[in-house]
UniProtKB/TrEMBL annotation:
The gene is CEL1. It catalyses: Endohydrolysis of (1->4)-beta-D-glucosidic linkages in cellulose, lichenin and cereal beta-D-glucans. This is Endoglucanase. Belongs to the glycosyl hydrolase 9 (cellulase E) family. It comes from Salvia divinorum. The keyword Amino-acid biosynthesis does not apply. The active site is at H416, D467, E476.
Length: 496
């Protein structure tokens, strides 16, 4: 099942300030320096394993085949394509849009140093935006999910075999969803920047659609989980509210279009949409830290003094991440991993680390540092913090385990993922029915198909990891764990 980020883990110890510097150094040395470029290649390969629809001729993960070729047919629309978000076979639009936004941001900030993997990164973005364009093809309607999660989670079957309900869920004027619509607008706007010089016509289509979807999100305000609670909860319920997605969408539209109207919208709505709330959060449900870091670039470059409060919030977010600071929301495991209350912890690790790196670059260009209580955080310090988290993921941790499947000598082999854990169509052409897959789910054997590049939810608060499918919070990979990691790996591959 898809991870529920609101489930609470066991308690874990706070790290004292005396361990601050130790966290910046590899505490568990790897046998050899990490090959960040190889990890980047594999992190992008993972997205091919998550593809839904008709696979292209250049598909590299060959054990996957075409799936869900009739999505949308029950509603009279074409909703084929897109990504399965995690180890199940539902297409959840909210995390898919966030994944696309972060992939696009990775290309915008780090694409120039991706080398031979830039093309694959752009393909990963486009696989997401092609689907989002289908989902927003009709004015005043956004299709936000395909697949009934209850029937899907009642089965353990390959996406190529699935016979569960493929219900298409939508939001409209009478059933609003400003959160998922705002995130979709952000994804389309961010991607329009990626394609601006590469495919101008496609870029213009993405931007014009982003404008329409944002206007719809702003005009018909409300949380999509109020309109579609039975379908999206408890899987991807909007717990945080829709206000942050409106600011997030406007921020990306401002960056993509350079239209004053969007900056004025942000300034005018800063208090109304609670811009200063929960500045220590960033993920598919909460965009506040991302908004603050993204808009801070405008301030640091001297372009928008009226956005200075966002830079102050970004500085506050950075200070809250410094090891040794007694912050109740962001803490560290004994082995040095960022840890937050909730499931699938690696989503916080990669998204926070991405913001650390992005902000460090913005600060460097402005010759600026972050002033925190009792210390000053330089851009170089932020980069070291981000690198420490990446290295932990790749194997510098108490277990000596890489949490990226297929990278390193030891990695998770029993991940919570249907397609990976069941025999491939090539190996087992006959259909495997809903309940027939249970024996593979419960098997102690490694998954027969290696989902190369997948980063799982990760160890618990004491750095322990059960390599077991039923422990889905630790063993399930998601697209929104990998998306921020793409930019991080690109940077460290170029600067290692």
């Amino acid at each position: 099942m898809a991870p529920n980020p609101r489930r609470l883990p066991s308690c874990f110890p706070l790290l004292s300030a005396s361990l601050f510097l130790l966290l910046l150094l590899p505490r568990h040395s790897a046998a050899s320096p990490h090959n960040y470029h190889d990890a980047l290649r594999k992190s992008l390969l993972f997205f091919e394993g998550q593809r839904s629809g008709r696979l292209p001729p250049d598909q590299r993960l060959r054990w996957r085949k075409d799936s869900a070729l009739h999505d949308g047919a029950s509603a009279g629309v074409d909703l084929t394509g897109g990504y399965y978000d995690a180890g199940d076979n539902v297409k959840f639009g909210f995390p898919m849009a966030f994944t696309t936004t972060l992939l696009a941001w990775s290309v915008i900030d780090f694409g120039r140093i991706m080398g031979s993997e830039l093309g694959n990164a752009i393909k990963a973005v486009k696989w997401g935006t092609d689907y989002l364009l289908k989902a927003t093809a009709h004015d005043g309607i956004v299709y936000v999910q395909v697949g009934d999660p209850l029937s899907d989670h009642n089965c353990w079957e390959r996406p190529e075999d699935m016979d569960t309900l493929r219900t298409a869920y939508k939001i409209d004027a009478n059933h609003p969803g400003s959160d998922v619509a705002g995130e979709t607008a952000a994804a389309l706007a961010a991607a329009s920047i990626v394609f601006r010089s590469r495919d101008p016509a496609y870029s213009r289509l993405l931007l014009s659609r982003a404008i329409k979807v944002f206007e719809f999100a702003d005009r018909h305000r409300g949380a999509y989980s109020s309109s579609l609670e039975h379908a999206v909860c408890p899987f991807y319920c909007d717990v945080n509210g829709y206000q942050d997605e409106l600011l997030w969408g406007a921020a990306w539209l401002h960056k993509a279009s350079r239209r004053r109207v969007y900056r004025e919208y942000i300034v005018r709505n800063e208090v109304v949409l609670r811009a200063g709330d929960s500045i220590n959060e960033f993920g598919w449900d909460n965009k506040h830290a991302g908004i603050n870091v993204l808009l801070s670039k405008e301030v640091l470059m001297g372009r928008s003094n009226d956005l200075r409060s966002f830079q102050m919030n970004a500085d506050g977010f950075i200070c809250s991440l410094l090891p040794g600071i007694s912050n109740p929301q962001v803490q560290y495991s004994p082995g040095g991993l960022i840890f937050k209350a909730g499931g699938s912890n690696m989503q916080h690790v990669t998204s926070f680390s991405f913001l650390l790196l992005a902000y460090s670059n913005y600060l460097s260009h402005a010759n600026h540092a972050v002033t925190c209580p009792q210390t000053t955080a330089s851009p170089a310090l932020l980069k070291r913090l981000a690198k420490r988290q990446v290295d932990y993921i790749l194997g510098d941790n108490p277990l000596g385990m890489s949490y990226m499947v297929g990278y390193g000598r030891r990695y998770p082999e029993r991940i919570h993922h249907r397609g990976s854990s069941l025999p491939s169509v090539h190996a087992h052409p006959a259909r495997i029915a809903c309940k027939e897959g249970s024996r593979y789910y419960l098997s102690p054997n490694p998954n027969p198909n290696v989902l190369v590049g997948a980063v799982v939810g990760g160890p618990n608060s004491s750095d322990a990891f059960p390599d077991s499918r039923p422990f889905f919070q630790e063993s399930e990979p998601t697209t929104y764990i990998n998306a921020p990691l793409v930019g991080l790996l690109a940077y460290f591959a170029a600067h290692s």
